[in-house]
Amino acid sequence: MSSKKIETQFEIIRTFVAILLAMSLAFLIILGISKQPLNALTTFLTGPFSSIRRFGNMIEMSIPFIFAGLSVCVMFQAKQFNMISEGAFFIGGVAASYIAVKVMLPMGIHPIVAILFGGLIGAIAGFIPGILKTKWNANELVSSLMLNYVFLYLGIYVINNILRDPNAGMMASFIFEETAMFKKIVPGTRIHLGVFVAILSIILTYLFMYRSKWGYALRMTGLNENFARYSGINTGRVIIYSQVLGGFIAGLGGATEILGMYQRFQWQSLPGYGFDGIIVAILARNNPLFVPIGAIFLAYLRVGADIMARMTDVPSEVISVIQAIIIMLIAANRFLAKWKHQRIVKDSQEKLAVKEGK
C-alpha cells in the first residue's frame, strides 16, 4: 500500500473517530441533563427519518450547505482562509431576487439567469479580498470578515430602496415571478430543483480541481506557494481566481436557496451558511466529492437536534458541542498521528522484506 493511500485512509478514519468521540460526549451530556435520556437519544438519532417531511427537511437544509462547503473547499485548497462565502451567499440571494422581481423571462430560462447573476455578484464579492491580498498583501481573513457586513448592508439597502414591498408588513421584497422560482419535486416536502444545481456544482468543481491545469495550479499553490511560484505558476492570479470561484459558488448557493425555499427575499441578517460551509469543508477534507456527505451529516445533526428540542427536555444547543469537538479534533494535526506513522513504517518494512526476499 502506498503512503498516499495510507494518508487517505488516515484522514477518513480520523474524521470518523472525531465524529464518534463528539457524539459520545454529546450523549453523555444528554444522559446528565435529561429526565428521559433514552427517549431524547432515540428522538435525536431517528427523528430525521421518522417521516417524509422530516427527511425532506434534512435534504432541503443540505442544499445550501453543499454550495457553502464547495465555496470554502476551493479557497481553502489554495490556502486562502477567506470567509467571504457568508457575504457572497447573502448578496447572491439579493441579486437573484432582483432578477426574479424586475426581469420578465420565460419559465426555465428565468431561474437560470437569476442564479447565474447571483453567482456573478458573488464572484465580484470574492474578487475584492483576492485583489487586496495580491496588490497590498491585505490579510484575506480580516478583509473578508469586514466585507461580509459591507455586503449585508448593501443588500439591505437594495431590498429597502429598490425591491421592498410596502404591503408585506416587514422588510421583504416583492413576491417573485412564478417563472423564476424552482419547482418542488417531492410531494410532502420542499425539496426543489435546486438540488440538481447543487449536484452539477459538485461535479464541475471536482473536475476543475482535479482534472484541469487551473485546478492543479490552485492545489500546488496551496501546498507550497513558493515552490509553485518558482515552478512558473502565476500564484497571484491563482490567489485571485480561487477566491473569485469561491465567491461565485457561494453566490450561486444564495440564489438557489432564495429561489427554491422562499417566495420573496426576507433575510434581515447574514444567514450563517458561509460559516456552516467551513464545518462542511473540514468534514470533507476540502474534497468536493465528500462535500455532500459532510453537508447531509451536518443537516442530519441540525434536524435531529431541532426535533429533540421540540419533543424532549434537551435543548438543541447540544449540537454546538458536537460541532466544536469535531472541528477541534479534525484540525488537530497530532490527533492519531502516531497511528499513521506506525502504519507507514510497517508498510515500508513489509515492502523492504518482500524486496529482500526476491
From TrEMBL:
What is the name of the protein in this document?
Answer: ABC transporter permease
The entry's localization annotation reads: Cell membrane
What UniProt keywords apply to this chain's record, in alphabetical order?
Answer: Cell membrane, Membrane, Transmembrane, Transmembrane helix
A Pfam family reported for this protein in Swiss-Prot or TrEMBL: BPD_transp_2
Q: Which organism is it from?
A: Clostridium malenominatum
Where is this protein primarily located? membrane
Which PANTHER family does the entry mention?
ABC TRANSPORTER, PERMEASE PROTEIN (PTHR47089), GUANOSINE ABC TRANSPORTER PERMEASE PROTEIN NUPP (PTHR47089:SF1)
| TM spans (from-to) | 12-34, 54-76, 88-105, 111-132, 144-163, 191-210, 238-259, 289-312, 318-336
Q: Which InterPro entries match?
A: ABC_transp_permease
The annotated topology with respect to the bilayer is: Multi-pass membrane protein
Q: Which domain of life is it from?
A: Bacteria
Quick check: keyword Cell membrane in the entry? yes
